[in-house]
Design a protein that fits this description.
The chain is α/β, with parallel strands linked by helices and about 500 residues long. The chain has helices spanning about 1-10, 55-70, 80-95, 100-110, 115-135, 170-185, 200-210, 225-230, 245-260, 280-295, 310-325, 345-365, 395-400, 415-425, 440-445, 480-485; strands at about 20-25, 25-30, 35-40, 45-50, 140-145, 150-155, 160-165, 185-190, 215-220, 240-245, 265, 275, 305-310, 365-370, 385-390, 405-410, 430-435, 450-455, 475, 490-495. The protein is globular and about 75 Å long. Bound molecules: adenosine-5'-diphosphate (ADP). Belongs to the aldehyde dehydrogenase family.
Length: about 500
């Protein structure tokens, strides 16, 4: 039936593009400069839309609108349950338009529409509904304090949030940051990535329909060094939450330090280890390694790009992996619903990944599979899923985040060695362990320095599961109740126990 076809992606059509302007104070408007930029279809490199390009002037107007909505508007002042009701309505509208949104997102980012609907929008909806439910559960504590005093804490909406998101999971990122900000009662300015501005604008339209007041959500597509930087250094923005590269994370902190010292929260790159012990179910382990590296064409900050396999099963694992990759399909996600992997998001990323692959070859790693571009008729940013073996820890491909379909396979002997090598990185985002031995699993879980550890699974996340890294993978959590803290100011209030203690 229809649903079956939809699951396979056969009913998704390339959508019409409806929203291409900046969304400021509840209206779609041109950039003050009149400038636009192009967003392209990664399957062909062709332009799919020209989008209004925000720069500093537009970010200023968006922040002014948010400031006004926060300082004088009803959003932070209405009851939590009323805010929750409106966020839930927003979620319902997103769900009603999920087919179109998933197709739009897939067109902009080179994704598979059926998977995008199930996963990206599944997560986005999960987050909107979770925080709709959280909006009336924000409360402080009572403090006994010392003899003559008592106190309590208030958790107040922080103010204007700056939200800067990347291109790999644009809708999920939008929702996991906007939903808690809304629940907390903040107003916000969202800067989507220049590669993928379309879904955020569609979200803005739905937010207005849902009844979120004008100025509470503003969306300013544009480039990082102009629009993004203007937001990060704005004197009237009260916090910034950012997901993206480690280099830009550094710039965001600097911008805060040099402006108003706004708190910043960073979810940055990773080089996450997946450790497979010799008692593992081999088929499952292969499947986990494959999905942990090649899902979303490897454009995932938690991709398990370092796969450690214990000596005794190493060669069997290698064989099975090579065999498995023969049935992995790279192709146009719209015309070939069987495609497991679409094109990289843009030319820059495509060339970057290919240059890492070249680097790996020159460093002396061996190609087990892939290693070449595979566009159709020389078009599109497609790359073969690539597995390197004979990888040494000090090679660039084992150290730096590649952000593409490239797996490094390495061999280890003992638990201690695996833990030491897993932790021998500047990053600390995710980690995975595959074993049937609970003791071994627990040892790895406790010892590995990462924000999330998966045991006999990978990539499993959810709206109640805090997500965010350690070390140079950043700090601060998206999802789960902890995520609310970023958007709330904790205020302590102290009163005397008796009317006049003196
Ligand atoms: P990637 O390397 O994955 O493209 P980036 O870190 O460059 O990720 O981009 C993530 C987001 O940060 C995008 O929205 C981008 O426009 C924005 N960005 C890039 N440079 C800056 C900057 N200097 N200040 C603020 N935001 C930026």
């Amino acid at each position: 039936g229809e649903e079956e076809k939809k699951k396979r992606g056969e009913l998704f059509e390339v959508p019409e593009i409806k929203f291409t302007k900046l969304f400021i104070n509840g209206s779609f408007v041109d950039a003050a400069s009149g400038r636009t930029f192009e967003t392209r279809d990664p399957r062909t490199g062709d332009v799919i839309a020209t989008v209004a390009e925000a720069d500093k002037v537009d970010v200023d107007s968006a922040v002014r609108a948010a400031r006004d909505a926060f300082d004088h508007g009803e959003w932070p002042r209405m009851s939590g349950s009323e805010r929750g009701r409106i966020i839930a309505r927003f979620a319902d509208l997103v769900e009603q338009h999920a087919d179109e949104l998933a197709a739009l997102e897939s067109l902009d980012a080179g994704k598979h529409p059926a998977i995008t609907k199930a996963v990206d929008f599944g997560n986005a909806l999960g987050s909107l509904r979770y925080f709709a439910g959280a909006a009336d559960k924000i409360h402080g504590e009572t403090l006994k304090m010392q003899a003559q005093f008592q106190g309590y804490t208030l958790r107040e909406p922080l103010g204007v949030a700056g939200i800067i998101i990347p291109w790999n999971f644009p809708s999920t990122m939008f929702a996991i940051k906007v939903a808690p900000a809304l629940a907390a009662g903040c107003a916000m300015v969202v800067k989507p990535a220049e590669q993928t501005p379309l879904s955020a604008l569609y979200f803005a339209h739905l937010a207005k329909q849902a009844g979120i007041p004008d100025g509470v959500i503003n969306v300013v597509p544009g480039f990082g060094s102009t629009a993004g930087a203007a937001l990060a250094s704005h004197m009237d923005v009260d916090m910034v939450t950012f997901t993206g590269s480690t280099e830009v994370g550094r710039l965001i902190m600097k911008a805060s330090a040099e402006s108003n010292l706004k708190p910043v929260y960073l979810e940055l790159g990773g080089k996450s280890p997946l450790i497979i012990f010799d008692d593992a179910d081999l088929d499952m382990a292969v499947e986990l390694a494959v999905s942990a590296n090649f899902v979303n064409k490897g454009e995932a900050c938690v991709a398990a790009s370092r796969v450690y396999v214990q000596e005794r099963i190493y060669s069997r694992f290698e064989e099975k992996l090579a065999e498995r990759m023969k049935s992995w399909v790279v192709g146009d996600p719209f015309s070939d619903p069987r495609a497991d992997q679409g094109p990289q998001v843009d030319k820059v990323q495509y060339e970057r990944v290919l240059s890492y692959i070249d680097h790996g070859k020159r460093e002396g790693a061996t190609l087990l599979t892939g290693g070449r571009p595979c566009g159709q008729k020389e078009k599109g940013y497609y790359i073969e899923p690539t597995v390197f073996t004979n990888v040494k820890e000090d090679m660039v491909i084992a150290k730096e985040e590649i952000f593409g379909p490239v797996m490094c396979l390495m061999k280890f002997k003992t638990v201690e060695e695996a833990i030491a090598r897993a932790n021998d990185t500047r990053h600390g985002l995710g980690a995975g362990v595959v074993t049937r031995d609970l003791d071994v699993a627990n040892r790895v879980v406790r010892a590995v320095r990462a924000g999330v550890v998966w045991v006999n699974c990978y990539f499993a996340l959810g709206s109640d599961c805090p997500f965010g890294g350690r070390k140079m993978s950043g700090f601060g959590k998206d999802e789960g109740m902890h995520a609310l803290d970023k958007y709330l100011a904790l205020k302590s209030v102290v009163t005397p126990l008796r009317a006049s203690p003196w």
